[in-house]
Amino acid sequence: xxxxxxxxxxIRTFFRGHIALGEPLNKYTSFRIGGPxxxxxxxxxxxxxxxIITYLQRNAIPFTVIGRGSNLLVSDDGIRGAVINFETxxxxxxxxxxxxxxxxxxxxxxxxxxxxxxxxxxxxxxxxIPGTIGGAVMMNAGAYGGEISNFLVEVEVLREGKIIRxxxxxxxxxxxxxxxxxxxxxxxxxxxxxxxxxxxxxxxRELLLKRNQAQPVNLPNSGSMFKNPQGTHxxxxxxxxxxxxxxxxxxxxxxxxxxxxxxxxxxxxxDVLALIELARTSVFDRTGLRLELEVKLLxxxxxxxxxxxx
Length: 310
Prior knowledge:
Layout: H1 8-12, E1 18-24, E2 36-42, H2 46-58, E3 63-66, E4 72-74, E5 79-85, E6 93-96, E7 99-103, H3 108-117, H4 133-138, E8 142-143, E9 146-147, E10 152-159, E11 162-167, E12 184-190, H5 197-214, H6 234-240, E13 247-248, E14 251-253, E15 261-263, H7 269-287, E16 296-298, H8 302-309
C-alpha cells in the first residue's frame, strides 16, 4: 500500500509531542513482537491528539492507537501509517467531587492504586491486566467476575473531530466489547463505592497472587488469546485438544495456561498466528466450537485478519 507523503516539518508546526520514523514496535507491545511503524507519535495532551488525528484523517493517513501494547499481535512487517501512543501524554488521574477522572493512557495498576489509597473499592480485580484505561474501556476488560464498566459513569472520546462525553448507558458495553470502535478514547470517569483500605489491599494482593500462580507472567504474552465461549473456558478446550505446551518457532501455547501464547525469545508474529490457527482448528474439530480472538491483530492483510478472527 502506497501512502500519501507526510511532511514531518508540517506536523511539528502544531504537534508538541514526540515523533519517530520507522520505530520498532516490539518495544511497545507486551508480546515483545512487532515490526516498525512508519510514523510513531506520542501526543503531549488531548489537544495534541485532536490535532494530529485531524491532520492524519485530512491527509488519508491510516493510524492506530495503542496504550501499553497489551492484547495486541503486531505483524513482523510492522504497521503502515501512524501509530499513536497515549501512555506518555495522557496519564493523569484526579478526584472531581465523588468521581475518579482518569486519562486513557494511565495504566490500570496505577489507576487501581490511586483508588485504593483514597478508600475506594470496585476495581481491585484489575491491576493484573497489563493495559491502560483506554484499551480496557474499549474492550470492557475484566477479571474475577468484575468488568471495568461496572462503576463507570462516562467516557470522554474524540468523535468526528470533536471531544465529547458518552454516558455509560449509551456506550454499548457487553462481554469484552464496547461501542467505541470508531472513536478515540481519551479518558473516563468512575463513581466507586467506599471500602476499607486494608481489606481492599488484601483482596488486590490475593487476586494478583492467584493470577501470577495461574498465568505465565514471567514470559512476554498478550494476555488471554481467545474469548471464553459461553458455558466453558477457552483454556480447557485448548488443553483438552492436547495443545498445552505446543511450540512453533519460539512461540508456545503456555504450559501454565493454555489460553496464553508466550514468546520464548525472538518469536515471530507468524509463529503466533500458526498456533492461533492450530488451536482454533483443533478445538473446532473436537467440539464444533469456534474460538473467537480476544487479541487484536495489527498490520496483517485484511484476509489474514478475517481468517484468524472468524
